[in-house]
Design a protein that fits this description.
The protein has 171 residues and is mainly beta. It has one domain. It is built from two helices and eleven strands; from the N terminus they run ββββαβββαββββ. It has a four-stranded antiparallel beta sheet with strand order 3-4-5-6, with no helix packed on it. A three-stranded antiparallel beta sheet has the order 7-8-11. Strands 1-2 form a two-stranded antiparallel sheet. 25% of the residues are buried.
Length: 171
């Protein structure tokens, strides 16, 4: 966005840098529901919050493995092609630390979020990013959630999210 220097309330031009989700959902090479953004001298880092429309069931993962994906972090250079820097790894879902008693959730149920520049503390190209592991429960209250379905308690749960230090050189 370019603002008029004499009146900063007037936009003189606007350019779309990234356009995601303009095709039907589950298009692999597009940004799925961008959530957070961090600027760098050469481009932008975008996190994805895939949401329900961008989640892939186990059957979809098997049927179309080339297009099924977990949440991703994209690097969008100011000139050039957007590229995936990292994908969220959901392999702990349904594993020994997951106490919800359910099978692994859909790919895309976890989101990448909250990216901030951490280069002052950890050196060039360092970023802190949050992974919200919505289907990985590491603690829950005992018993039913009072609706009679016999499933784990939704009221008192603790997700297995992570704060990750990520190095992305050259961005």
């Amino acid at each position: 966005m370019v603002l008029d220097p004499s009146n900063p309330k007037v936009v003189t031009s606007l350019t779309v840098l990234v356009e995601g989700d303009d095709n039907p959902v589950k298009t692999l090479n597009e940004v799925h529901q961008p959530d957070n953004i961090e600027s760098t001298p050469n481009g932008l880092l975008l996190t994805e919050d895939p949401g329900s429309s961008q989640q892939f069931t186990a059957a979809q993962q098997l049927a179309d493995p080339a297009n099924a994906t977990t949440a991703r972090l994209w690097y969008v250079p100011f000139s050039g092609t957007p590229q995936v820097v990292v994908k969220v790894n959901q392999s702990a879902d349904g594993g020994p630390t997951d106490v919800d008693g359910r099978p692994a959730g859909n790919w895309g149920a976890w989101e990448s979020s909250g990216i901030v520049d951490a280069s002052a503390a950890f050196g060039p190209g360092a970023f802190l990013i949050d992974v919200q592991a919505h289907t990985l429960w590491v603690e829950k209250a005992p018993g039913d959630d009072n609706n009679g379905d016999g499933q784990p308690d939704f009221t008192y749960k603790r997700e297995g999210g992570q704060l990750v230090l990520l190095k992305v050189p050259g961005v």
